[in-house]
Amino acid sequence: MSFLDFQLDESLQKAIRSQGFEQPTPVQIEAIPAALEGRDVLGTAQTGTGKTVAYLLPSLQRLLQSNPSRSPRMVVLAPTRELAVQIAEEACTLATYLDLKVLAVYGGSSIRKQRDQFKRGVDVVIATPGRLLDHMRRRNVELNKTEILVLDEADRMLDMGFIPDIVDILKRVPERRQTLLFSATMPQSILSLSYRFLRDPVRVEIATARPPDAIDQQLYPVPKHLKTNLLMALLKKRNVTSALVFTRTKVDADVVARKLREEGMKVSVMHGDFPQHKRMKAMERFRSGKDPILVATNVAARGLDIEGISHVINYDVPEQAETYIHRIGRTARVDAEGVAWTLVTPEDEADIDAIEFLLGGRVERVRIDDFDYNVPTPSWAQQSAKTILKNAERKQSDIDRWKSLTR
Question: Which CATH entry fits the domain spanning 3-206: 3.50.30.10, 3.30.2270.10, 3.40.710.10, 3.40.50.300?
Answer without folding.
Answer: 3.40.50.300
